[in-house]
Amino acid sequence: xxxxxxxxxxxxxxxxxxxxxxxxxxxxxxxxxxxxxxxxxxxxxxxxxxxxxxxxxxxxxxxxxxxxxxxxxxxxxxxxxxxxxxxxxxxxxxxxxxxxxxxxxxxxxxxxxxxxxxxxxxxxxxxxxxxxxxxxxxxxxxxxxxxxxxxxxxxxxxxxxxxxxxxxxxxxxxxxxxxxxxxxxxxxxxxxxxxxxxxxxxxxxxxxxxxxxxxxxxxxxxxxxxxxxxxxxxxxxxxxxxxxxxxxxxxxxxxxxxxxxxxxxxxxxxxxxxxxxxxxxxxxxxxxxxxxxxxxxxxxxxxxxxxxxxxxxxxxxxxxxxxxxxxxxxxxxxxxxxxxxxxxxxxxxxxxxxxxxxxxxxxxxxxxxxxxxxxxxxxxxxxxxxxxxxxxxxxxxxxxxxxxxxxxxxxxxxxxxxxxxxxxxxxxxxxxxxxxxxxxxxxxxxxxxxxxxxxxxxxxxxxxxxxxxxxxxxxxxxxxxxxxxxx
Length: 487
What we know:
With 487 residues, the chain is α+β, with helices and mostly antiparallel strands. The chain is built from 10 helices and 25 strands. The protein has 3 domains: 1-29 and 259-353, Neutral Protease, domain 2; 31-227, Immunoglobulin-like (Sandwich), CATH 2.60.40; 355-481, Neutral Protease, domain 2 (Orthogonal Bundle).
């Protein structure tokens, strides 16, 4: 009886979600299921092939010295078309990912990031390509060299049992994580490669289409909005989602399992979708209402909401963290309070719309989202940002937070408390220095000028100085780069 009631509620929710799709959304793409996949989009036009002497291999890394093997050089991805078929009982995934990209140099070969999983076939512009594997590097050699500036499409067919990354120095377990009824998919910093081939580094953003096939009765959630009604055949259902705004790979999700759904629109008119595992059924209304309220409020503080929908997902997996997956923050095994929700939804501006080029600038994501928690508490009359700042500043001079300058996040300790808390303190110190009017104008200008793009610490300092008319080098140096407590 309960399963039947869930089915009726789910169908009603889906119809409403589709009705909430933005009016300017393009038609749904015909994303194939993984089992019978053919490329959904036509290959990008290829420029005249260079001579063999002009082409060389693309670099196996994108150029981030702290993560030298992440990402790849020689091309820029514009779109991922991901079709996966996942069976929770066997934990087996079958996938076909089609990548549309443009070469940034003449290429005799190029790399993709893919961890584990067996590659069955690779084609480039529809022609069979040769490939080799070494660790997480998939090296592809197209039948003809690719010209500098030329567009190309690479299609990779693969299968296997995904293995999440175990990294005690950072988030612990992340990537494609099997659960009792499905999978919990949170990939920061470099776990996208555990379930699809990618240029897996935040420096390369792209749009996404997803087709996720699961046993009938399960729900599959991905970024963006539903692109057509879920289709059931042969005991399986394929869910299609589209994120038409640029997104970094670590924010892509394919979280699936049993979920209760609640949808509608915020008071400001933004479509909202909340989903919770049945173990958290009592949290559904709170996740929905708080996500709607927080998103609307941040739009008045940070500028217009950058995406087409908002919400949150609570899964019954004790991840021990939440992640700001674009349009659908994930909460791993707990009912989020409004402070955590405020943090993750602030990331939709700081981290998702505005993305870092290098991991060393991570405070631009986490410091801003932590300061947003303080602003939310101030807005709700719980504690002022000044009180939060003073409470943190009372930490003893020997406290570890002062020994870790947050302006240079360390690869073996990316998510150190300093990156969050001292990063937030930097923003409050700046607010005190330049005044509220200039500070909040700075935040809105920052999000507007770099919407859907990439940012660096230097760019933020320059903008702060331009808008305030002050030299701020000493302030930022003391708070971001010195291993001691600022006065």
